[in-house]
Structure prediction request, 901 residues.
Amino acid sequence: MPPFNFIKQEVRPNTIPDLKVDATFRKVPKHALTFELWKIDEDRLEAVARPQYGTFYDNCAYIIYASSLVGHYANHETITREQKPNVPLERYIHYWLGSNVSEQNRSNVVHKIQELDTYLGNVASIYRESQNHESARFLSYFKKGYDVLSGALVNSPQGVRLFQLYGRKWLRAVELADIDWTHFNSDYIMVLQMETTTFVWIGRSSASIERRSALSWVQRQRTNCTICIVDDGYEQSMSPEQKQLWNKVLPLQQRMVYQTNKLGSDYDCKTNGDVNGSNKFRIYKCNQRGRLHLDQLDVGVPSKDDLSDAHGVYLLDNYGQSIWLWVGAQATQADALTAMGNGRAFAKKKKYPNSTLVVRVLEGQEPVEFKRLFGNWLTVWQDNTRGHKPVSTKFGKLDAVLLCERPKMAADTQLVDDGRGERILYRIHGDQLEELPPTKVVVFTTNASYVVKYTVQCATVVPADLACVGVKSIIYQWNGSEASAETIAKADGFAMASFEALNGGGMFVQLYEFDETPHFLQLFEGKLIIMRGQRSELLHSNNNLHWDFKTNIMLETFLLKIYGDASYNGKAVEEHPLSSISSKDCYVIKTNHVWVWCGQSSTGDAREMAKSVGALLGESSLVLEGKESKEFWQSVAMYFNQTLVINGQSCASSTTSSSSSGAGSMCNGSSNGGGNISPTLSNNCYLNTTIPTKPRPPVQLFLVWWEQSQLRCEEILGFEQKDLCADSTYILDTGTLAYVWLGSKAVKQERDRYTSIAQCYVQNAPFGRRSATALAVVRQYSEPNVFKGFFEMWQDELGKNFITYEQMRQELGSIAPSNALNEGSALHLNNNQKDFDGHKKYPLSVLVQEMDMLPPEINPLRREVHLTHDDFVSVFKMSFYEFDELPKWKKQELKKLNKLF
Prediction:
């Protein structure tokens, strides 16, 4: 399908020119960078003033229009700037529905959306957003989060207000219509605003980043008010005056705090389909029969090719997480306008939640969130949103100084340096770990793992450039495709111990065969040889480390396929059995002589790489397809039992030797002819290294955290360095390499389990990709240039003045009592206390009831763990930690005494 040029076709066919458009919309420039926000209240459409951006009412509907240059992101601070008509823009319309919006407002906003869409010429993507279930793109417009005020309290006098605050990257502050304990949850931070005092109640399960954001939010809201911080379960620590104020609206004897997860699957990295990802999503074609009629496409793995009809509309059901309507370039305006309605009708028919995200996208202007749903999206959508050209792919042309000076170039090529630094190799096989002596020829076997300790060599002594490179050492771990679980586990332990020994001044990269990164291949100058596991004993038996191809008779016969055409994408891989050969490839064949065979269609750079590998093995002879000598065929036929011609058409018409002497061309027009297909050739595992100039995906940043042994993530669109917070962990996904960024103040569980985070993310990422993607771990303040280059204007000093939640709390200490909690929550470092804080809390009156009257989640033998800390101390006259140290008989005696047994 030819790409749709949306610049030439700004207006869709069959446009209705005289459709009435609201006068407010007509003020919007059609071809400009802009961010506009309108509010719909009953029948009125009014523009929201810029200072009010980010404040919504839950009984209203809102419309957002954002346009930006391709590959860039608008936000609420975007200033309107006209652009020339030939400059391509990305346009997005969002309509947001508050949780208490009326049916009238829902209907009105749909009509207004159609007016705005028509006015703009039907060239924008449209998102339907619901309160608390907004898309990542919507959230990216409001960097500091947003507030949702209660429409029910608009006309009521300014009195006591209760807010629910949550959200790691984007803080959502939701005003509640009534003040009651039922709104409290250990995941949330609650803010109780009174005339003279603002109480900030910190849920025990809330994250440090949420607590910091909440305190900042409170300070922005109320500047001349006393702030009192109250910890979940420690409400009795308040002063008598504060307790009296609190009890007026929230009596402590009625305290009930739920211990549940917020939002559940909205934050989950896993898709709602099966974990293996075989059920990514379903595609339907919309047929125009007067009402919604869908025909499901019978496709195993959905791909862009399934969207084949430019005159049609397709519906993509992402298993209730989102519904996408794809409108072809030649579809009528009526189809484009009714697409959103069809999406909503589909959601109702499937009984999906009313909050399900529905998006309409247009052919040629698909957003990245849509494209990445497809497993082959990188190869079928050729647009590259990053404007930096890669380093020249000509053989041997690598400017080491430029890589040090320009982080963007280093990030684009993924080359830290030119690979000439010192390297130490270790081989792990089973429980054996051995250091390999430095040799000119480096051979890996597929049944082993290898660890490379590399010292970065900078081609400059300029301090600024050295700081720009960022790392002094890199630990690489390479796992072969046939390596056992025991081997990989041993290699994991050794590699991570080596990384930890660097004391933060390095980077750890974990690779799998087929997924070698450019810098890893550059270490070996593109001459890395990967051989089958069967060679392992021959190569490494009897400490035969200084082995030579020519002297070991058992290694006299093998064939290497050359991948890549430069030192940073080249390698040689043993092929066995040989099933099919392409004219684009080069091979090195080792028999009683070294032959370098080059196909007719192979490039000069690829031939140079093949010759350099051949030279490692001894004196070699170059053989071109169609010009093979008789000696070559005799040498090959002598050592290969199978013929190298696989029932294919010869590309070399000049080869006319008789087949009885093993003659024939090595070329086969079809890569899947014959029944004896090499696994490497058949599954295209090496596809990513054969195209050195493949398009780079738009890089994505995710904030990640563990929640009850599941990995949760929030995507950050339009990211910048300021989005990286020291108390959090992030994943920067470049498509071929997933970087885990560990903040210096991140929780210990995340700092220690960084490989688990990366592996869990890669395996469950909610879009099409292979699960063996390479992983890299970088620490705050030790980021390499290949990481920094993905951020505009990286500043090494940014983040050095980070203020933790505990520090913020101490600064408020003059007005907020610390409640004797120095670490945010007392005794949190004790495992028993963590167990105590993890249980749902109930009033004492509930816990002393008869067994059949107890709530179902309470264990009658352990009622005491469901007390709050305050109640526990008042009942037992000691903390839970002290109580837990008592002998069993003494604990039972105390529990009987207090009717908790």
